[in-house]
Design brief:
CATH class: Mainly Beta
Shape: globular
Number of domains: 1
Strand content: 35-45%
Radius of gyration: 17 Å
Number of strands: 11
Largest sheet: 9 strands, antiparallel
Helix content: 10-25%
Structural class: alpha+beta
Number of helices: 3
CATH architecture: Roll
CATH topology: Pnp Oxidase, Chain A
């Protein structure tokens, strides 16, 4: 089990991604969940893929934070990705690196007004990451909506594809 910020115990099932027969021979190791959490916490840019009502994908870069086992981002409920999430909660989120890969599949939703303590954590984390880019939200910013959360269900990660491809199941 891994502790996330002292609040939640996260105990993912660790497996290999499924590969075609003969595709990958004898990977050497698994990545630890702590590697994924560190990458999700430290990342500056996250790519969010949602599904349009007609089934076509939509992708957008987002600023986000990882807190208590969830990924939080904000924005107008009128954006394409927010409207997509309202119709279909299934999302994929990945980080920028193609060499230190983290791909998250999960369920997203509008958070509504978060509890004040959580709103403070989110605002502080966003400010710490993005204040030098002109973004430092206040905890009451999401009282009327505009905050979204992703609950990871499955994560793929690797640093050397032939050595450590790892799948984490969180369902």
């Amino acid at each position: 089990m891994f502790e996330d910020g002292g609040k939640n115990l996260i105990d993912p099932k660790v497996t290999r991604p499924q590969f075609p027969e003969g595709y990958l021979e004898n990977p050497k190791s698994f990545l630890p969940w702590s590697h994924v959490e560190r990458r999700l916490t430290e990342a500056m840019h996250y790519w969010l893929c949602t599904v349009r009502p007609n089934g076509r994908p939509h992708v957008v870069p987002k600023w986000a934070v990882y807190i208590q086992g969830k990924i939080y981002f904000d924005g107008s409920p009128e954006t394409r990705h927010a409207r997509n999430i309202a119709k279909n909660q299934h999302v994929v989120l990945h980080l920028e690196s193609g060499e230190d890969v983290v791909i998250v599949e999960g369920l997203a939703k509008a958070s509504g007004k978060p509890p004040f303590e959580l709103a403070v954590q989110i605002a502080q984390a966003l400010s710490k990451k993005y204040a030098d880019r002109g973004y430092a939200p206040q905890p009451d910013q999401w009282n009327e909506g505009g905050l979204f959360e992703i609950e990871p269900r499955m994560v793929l990660a690797w640093t050397q594809f032939t050595d450590d491809p790892t799948r984490f199941i969180l369902e």
